[in-house]
Amino acid sequence: MSLHAYALTAPLQDALRPAGIQAVHLGNLWNLTLGLCGLVFAAVLGACLYALWRAPRGDAGTAPDLRSLAQPERRVWRAIAWATAASTLGLLGLLAADVWTSRALARLPLADAVNIELTGHQWWWEARYLDADPAREFMTANELHIPVGRPVLVTLRADDVIHTLWIPNLQGKKDMIPGRTATITLRADRAGSYRGQCAEFCGVEHALMALLVEAEPNAAYEAWAARQREAAPAPRDALAQRGRAVFVNGNCARCHTVAGTDAQGRMGPDLSHLASRRTIGAGMFPNKRGHLAGWIADPQSLKPGVYMPPNALAPDDLQALLAYLETLK
Amino acid sequence: MSAPPGGQEARDPHRFGRLVEDGRVLDVSTLPTFAFGHRSPMWWGTMGLVLIEGTVFALAIMAYFYLRSHAERWPMSGMPPALFWGTVNTGVMLASAVPNHFAKRAAERLDLAKVRLWLVVCMLFSFAFLAVRALEFGALNTRWDTDAYGSAVWMLMGLHTTHLVTDAFDSGVLTVLMFTGPLEGKRYVDVSENAAYWYFVVLSWLPIYAVIYWGARF
Amino acid sequence: MTVLDTAKGSWPERGDAFTLEQTWSDPPGLLGWFSAVNHKTIAVRFMVTTFIFFLLGGLLALAIRLQLALPNGKVLGPDLYNQVFTMHGSTMMFLFAVPVMQAVATYLVPLMIGARSVAFPRMNAFAWWIFTMGGAMLYLAFFLDIGPDAGWFAYVPLAGPDYSPGKRVDFWAQMITFTELSGLMEAIVLITTILKMRAPGMTLNRMPLFVWTILVTNVMVLFAMPAVMLASTALITDRLVDTQFYNPAKGGDALLWQHLFWFFGHPEVYMIFIPPLGFMSSIIATFSRRPVVGYAAMVLALIGTAFLAFGLWVHHMFATNLPELGKAFFTAASLMIAIPTSVQIFCWISTLWTGRIDFKTPLLFVLAFFVILLLGGLTGLMLASVPLDYQLHDTYFVVAHLHYVLLGGAVFPLFGAFYYWFPKFTGRLLGERLGRWNFWLFFIGFNLAFFPMHVLGLQGMPRRVYTYPAEMDWADLNLLATAGALTIGLSVLLFVVNVVRSLRHGAAAGDNPWGAGTLEWSVSSPPPMANFERVPVVHGRFPLWQDAAQPAHVTGLASGYREVLITSVADAKLDHRLWLPGSTPWPFLAAVATTILFVGSIFTPWAVVWGAVPVAIATTAWFWPKREMTGRRVDSELLP
């Protein structure tokens, strides 16, 4: 099984390149802590090396120095006490910085937030974009679009095992635990493609559970959302129509949903707008015809253990199906 | 430690040994060859076991309340355990502390006849509390697989019952031994330490009883 | 045991080293091998067994690194990879790191405290047997391709009946039962030995710091291991008989597992870390030619560390939805535990500063601590921060951290301890030149392997992934890490070569090759089977360095049977004598019976019932006194 890049620039998955306010807070804390710990490391190791360098040498025959058994070594103890006091101060400083950062993370203003309910599955991401008006809600999978500069409130759930959402350029991670609901807030402050990955061992294909997050200007986001809300238009050419029949009447509809059709399966990702996504297989391959064909025919050979079975389709049916799927923009 | 430089003859060699060879060597051959209570390594072994098992019980009780804190209803389904047999057994176990106490005292006095008597009485009590324990299991009003509440109740019962069984078994072995022999001083220490374990099994039941039988009534 | 005429009240002290040796030796032959209970015999077996597991765990690590050396690796498929990393973690944590410390302790503690034995020699033997059988069971499952694959920490619901079908996780969970039973029994043995069997005059205040670390560690064991036993028992019952502890649909909770597991898991890493602090103190004292600075502070630091270790466990759960205020408390505790460790580090540096340094191989390994553990401890402070942990948790940063603290804090000092005490165990010195090569390859290889992982974690690489895409730019650092891992493998190979060669051709060590000050160096190398021909009387912390005082040793303990001296807890005043049992096959047979019960109960709950019968028989036979022996003891009895 191979993993390939995406057509355009490779998306970032890097905590050291924050692209949103939450990750910036974390990055600042990292820099501060790294600096302080670096100083301590140098000081303590320096003291140790200096001690080794300056101390006279001895061997098994050297008479041991037992003066400390008879009299206390007050000078030495004082030095240790000062060093311990300094360490304690440093620790208190870290504690203060940690608490300060925690509070900063909790203070993200949530006015005009985009609300997403993200459910982790073995080994894909189910997203429901929430809205006060239920008619404006829509589903997607494995790829999120968010507006730059607006907060995003993500509700985290899992139905099978524990997963963890982690988009390092934007925020720290949070567990998705069956039986519990968690929330996380983030905001992208720079447009770009950010890659997230499941960060809790969740089974055989845990390594191949990536999430793509496209941060784009609000207008572009709203346009994307508007398209997602509507079902894709019905196919016009015969091949695609045949493909739709293959989809709805065959195995696909058992697990997948395409809005506006009779295919309402819930076990696998929602495919209503599959063609609008950059990747397939939870970030495994670019969403291109060749990859998609291989995936449909035998996902097990690409991602062993995944719950999608192989599909032995006649070549004509497969071509029709691919043509249909390409209409799901 | 060893006797002071002067006046060692005044010290009891049974407790302090004897300095010999001009104070260069400490002769311990007059020390006893067994001892009771915390003087005995066996006591420390028993206490170690008590700490371990006590920790297991404490954690299991905490798990019970942890699960309860996440539940809307407790018991999650059905009724709490019926009080009768559990309370009867609590009485039986507490009563068994009496012969247990006398067996321990007799052992520490090296009184073989009394040790035999009280150990037999202890065994009668152990048959009783094991029998009632079987009845308790039938009156819990829940199964281990019904829900997490049932699992927690059965786990607590199962853990304690394991101790009742092992306590009964090793007390039984000791009882037989005290009749058949071979006997020596150390065996009285074993009887004394077994009594300490018996106390633990009885006393640890009290919080477990409270949690299982009353924990779902408040 | 030889038969000697008895006179009531005392055995004549023949000063008979030969008789003493006979009395304390293991019987010959195959039956003798299964019946051995001498603590040194068992300890050597224990050290060898844990080292074999270390090598197996290391091979598993090399497999991981080979798979991850390049993107889209094809060395191991996902299923096998998940088994391999589960086995690597489980082996290192349960089958190596804690047991090896107990093994070394069961050899050294009696020698350091002037005792002829551990307190419960048969239980000590049983603990090794049951440990070995449990480890063998786990590896048998792995070689049959039914090894566990849910991680060494087996989070539910993944490890539960719904998402890990079959018996794989059950083998893991039952391995826990085996190893925790062993650990708990060893804890009782070591605590009782330390408290009740110290030579007269060895007050707690005069105990070697290493013995303190063993005492503190094993008290932790009593309170920590029950948590994982309870957790794994509940997991087994969830999987075997449908209890619902961890099933949210029926009122269970996935986090119940995490709380119970980490309540054990965090103290566990300190149980691994604290005995090596004892190695550090022993080795630094000897090779600085002075006692470690600040004995009282060192002891209090150990006790403080042990206490605090129980208050940290939630820092493994920061990414869950637990309340933020609660998490902050655990940050504070996790930062605070650095204070006692800092005190110890400052005391050691002061010791080196004011001493006269002898740069032998044991000291080199110990000095690595001041680089590697120091760095690992500092990354620990980073992970202790809740917000930083949100980025770093479950990434390769944590893999780096844990290896820096575990290898820097435990394995490097352990290798130092092997170089230091190998002469005592075997009578021969390990090669000094090969030792230096061993050390430097290990040090360099370690840093090459694990330092890049800090960067990988920050650059987005999560843990427990069997592969990664080429576009992530993780390939170069992964390749470097693999090169480092191979270097470590090479250094361990050198160690094995050094051991094999030195066993045959190593320089004779003599009693005290390092000029050390504690009691184990007062006897021959290897020690006599009874440890001390004459049990010493102790007058100070460094009996071999300080001037001799009177009385110097004890007389009146028999040589014809295994008689030991029992002393009081705080001040080691004389208390009584005890006749310890000799060689017997019942610990082995009881372990076999217990293994049948444990393995059977993986497959059916009724195994607990019918399996209890052979266990009951074996333990009764173990206990049941022999008429002839009892008769002789009654003849020599002195009442309290």
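qc> The two ends of chain A are 27 Å apart (CA to CA).
qc> done
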